[in-house]
Design a protein that fits this description.
The protein is mainly alpha-helical and about 230 residues long. It has one domain (about 25-215). Helix content is about 60%, strand content about 10%. The protein has nine helices and five strands, in the order αααββααββαααβα. It has helices spanning about 5-10, 15-45, 45-60, 80-95, 105-120, 140-150, 155-175, 175-185, 200-215, and strands at about 65-70, 75-80, 125, 130, 185-190. Strands 1-2-5 form a three-stranded mixed sheet. Strands 3-4 form a two-stranded antiparallel ribbon. A hairpin with a 2-residue loop joins strand 3 (about 125) and strand 4. Helix 5 crosses helix 7 (about 155-175) and helix 6 (about 140-150) packs across helix 7 (about 155-175). The longest helix is centred in the N-terminal third of the chain and has 30 residues, at about 15-45.
Length: about 230
């Protein structure tokens, strides 16, 4: 027979179980953060990554980060620096750095597809142009899939981010610009007004992360080995 005191002495206390569970959750969270940071680092350079990571911090200290652009009759249109301007600048920078690797036709195709999917999944309401869950996941998923099909990683990640940002901007806001002006004749409309929670910003980040998940499924182009022919 086993001694009961021996069994009791080898049983871990409940506090240890709770600490072990917390440690596992913390470890998983750290791994997720590292994977996210790795995906972002493979797509963005240091300046672009700094701007992306700076957006949430700026939103904590400044409540209004929008600037006025133009007016249509009595409707004033503004653009939010965090929710739209910085993602657009970063997206344009990615395209400039990758202009030899990303064909203009592929860029136009991806942006058009994302813009159409965005227009189909968003609605104009009194609170602005909004998309409900899980419909707001469709534009970044669309950008990820099309970019994955037409370009190689990490250029597919750059194309996915840029096409998400500009596709959502076109499909959600620019196509509806006159509709928005007529919907609220006197007032203010802010593009990217939700900041880091705006669809423009979120779609770009989600597209980059999803592109990194597809890397193992991407076939690499075979390397061409040049053999030197020597004359005997």
């Amino acid at each position: 027979m086993l001694d009961k005191s021996f069994i009791a002495s080898n049983r871990l206390p409940m506090v240890t179980d709770d600490l072990l569970m917390m440690a596992m959750v913390l470890l998983i969270a750290i791994l997720i953060v590292l994977l996210i940071f790795k995906a972002l680092k493979q797509t963005f350079n240091l300046i672009e990554l700094f701007l992306i990571l700076l957006c949430p911090l700026v939103g904590l200290f400044w409540e209004d980060t929008s600037i006025e652009m133009f007016a249509i009759e009595s409707m004033v249109f503004r653009i939010d620096i965090i929710g739209a301007a910085i993602p657009m600048i970063v997206g344009a920078g990615l395209l400039i750095r990758s202009f030899r690797k990303i064909k203009a036709s592929n860029l136009i195709l991806t942006v058009i597809v994302v813009a159409l999917s965005t227009y189909a999944t968003t609605d104009l309401t009194s609170d602005g142009v909004i998309a409900y869950f899980p419909l707001y996941l469709i534009p970044p998923i669309t950008a990820t899939i099309v970019s994955f099909m037409v370009s190689q990683y990490p250029y597919s990640g750059r194309l996915a981010f840029s096409s998400s940002v500009f596709g959502v901007l076109i499909g959600a806001d620019l196509i509806r610009i006159w509709e928005i002006a007529d919907y609220n004749l006197i007032g203010t409309a802010t593009i990217g007004g939700a900041g880091v929670s705006d669809m423009i910003f979120i779609s770009g980040i989600l597209a980059v992360l999803m592109s990194s998940l597809l890397v193992p499924f991407k076939r690499k182009k075979p390397e061409v080995v040049h053999e030197e022919v020597r004359e005997e």
